[in-house]
Design a protein that fits this description.
alpha+beta, 5-stranded mixed β-sheet, 3 helices
């Protein structure tokens, strides 16, 4: 097991299998020294643990936990392309989409779930640029979706 996967395990987490695509795309692709993931939903064992809008059916606290699940799924997608998460030089960018009730404005706090988990797992390599965007709806009524871009060393 890699150092990064050991760290994931020490946090009481398990790197999941790659979530199969819902449409015609790849979960992650590599271009040069970078891996770009597709948007990752908070799937756990093939299902969403919650659906709906944040600030209505889903609490911000629950959505933050779901964003962390998205980040873990994104790391699984990266591993599927490079084979070893120890090759990560740094997380360059995180983009989080939050299906939001009309009055909900706490998208940054929700996406912190992904950012904080990446920091816990990767330390300084997990520090990144980020966008947190509120949207009307996400695929299969997911509350949150996260994509990451990472730099890889060979």
């Amino acid at each position: 097991m890699s150092v990064v996967e050991d760290r994931i395990a020490s946090l009481g987490l398990k790197l999941p299998e790659v979530v199969p695509p819902l449409a015609t795309y790849q979960p992650a692709v590599r271009s040069g020294s970078y891996v770009f993931t597709s948007g990752q939903l908070p799937m756990v064992d093939g299902a969403l643990p919650a659906t709906g809008k944040v600030g209505a059916e889903v609490s911000p606290e629950q959505a933050k936990e779901l964003a962390a699940t998205c980040a873990l799924n994104a790391l699984a997608a990266v591993r599927s392309v490079v084979g070893d998460l120890d090759k990560i030089v740094r997380v360059v960018k995180v983009v989080g989409f939050v299906a939001s009730a009309p009055e909900f404005t706490g998208q940054p706090g929700v996406v912190n779930g992904a950012s904080e988990l990446l920091g816990e797992i990767l330390g300084e390599k997990g520090v990144h640029a980020r966008s947190a965007v509120g949207v009307a709806v996400l695929p299969i009524d997911a509350p949150v979706e996260v994509e990451i871009q990472v730099e890889i060393a060979d």
